Amino acid sequence: MAEGLLVLITGLLMLSFAGSDSGNQLVQVFLVITMTAFYIVCAQALHLYLVGIIRDMPQQLMRLVVSWMLVFGALVLSATMFPAISLYDPAWTTPWFATGFIGLLVVRLGLTALVRNWTSAGLIERRAVIVGGGREAEELIQNLERQPNNDIRICGIFDDRTDARSPGVVAGYPKLGTVPELLEFARAARLDMLIVSLPLTAGGRVRAMLKKLWVLPVDIRLSAHTNKMGFKQRSYSYIGAMPFLKLADRPITGWRFVRKRAFDAVVSALLLIVLAPLMLASAIAIKLDSKGPVFFRQKRYGFNNEVIDVWKFRSMYADRCDAEARVVVTKGDPRVTRVGAFIRKTSIDELPQLLNVLKGELSLVGPRPHAVHAHLKDQPWNEVVDGYYARHRVKPGVTGWAQINGWRGEVDNLEKIKKRTDYDLYYIENWSLAFDLYILVMTPFRLFDMKNAY
Known about the structure:
Order of helices and strands: HHHHHEHEEEHEHEEEHHEEHHEEEHEHHH
Shape: flat
Strand content: 5-15%
Structural class: alpha/beta
Distance between the termini: 47 Å
């Protein structure tokens, strides 16, 4: 990060100009590096890298001051804890405190101006729709448009009502359909936010809408500008000065998404290198065992219900492959080759999906991608389990929380698909990089349990 580099360079320059004792200089260099890392942690914890904070200079300045004070508080504390080592020398720490803060302030002023210009030009925006029409929606839209540096781009309005309370055009924006139609529109248009504009007296309608809409990978907000709700200040989120209540948040966004994607890219590349001999041996065994290609592609649901091609090692006879997964694989299935039975039990057939991870279609850890036509007793899984599509609010994974808890292999009853969905939703709501690492470490050990893998 540019800020981290700025803090590091100013610290090293001030240390060099002060001409510290060579005996302690190496320790002090290490201290500068440590305090730089600590600043980045503080800045991230105080949300200094969120676009909304960057646009708001007063908020940003306050958080910047707190972050920088925490860094130098930690510096003084370390000097107090280790008095035998000359860690704190005002000859270089005081100039670093001043020049570092001035440098950060200049960077932040420039970044704020840049982000505001990009917002005005429409380069930074959040695509949103208004759920609910009539007078409340009109007032909401007018208030939103008056907010300075507003990044909300309204795409239209959706409302179940068809009478005079919900006209076809509100504040210049067309009514595009009903709430059930919004589900498909939100996926196709890649919406970022749904803003519910209904009074609190319509609590039943809000709950009914939320039950349908929470499966989408979007932020859902309830407009609070006309409702005297009496909640504490921290209960609200804001667009400009307009208050909103959070009904649902899109999972794994911002820097959390960046960290997860970087982790996926690095680890999947390393795994492909380490596992190359095993994958080569598997490919040779498949070729020697039966006629046909080494690899097999299957249409499966990815993020936001997008259909992707998932790669696997072929485990069935070429003329019996079921690309649409219309028939569940069972124990002793005659379609499965001898080599296929082994690679399915050990999950070696899944290793080519590391290529999907490198492409960004899959994550290393997440809900397993299910085949598009997967069904139970002639019913698609989304009709069998409420909230099934909520699994698709994040990228699917090569392994997942459900799999290491024993829910892998054949799905032949309601409990199995329901349990998988429950575990997947728990993972989404509780995601962390440490959680991903734990699941990855545990996956090889759980593969020894082969009772449900055919």
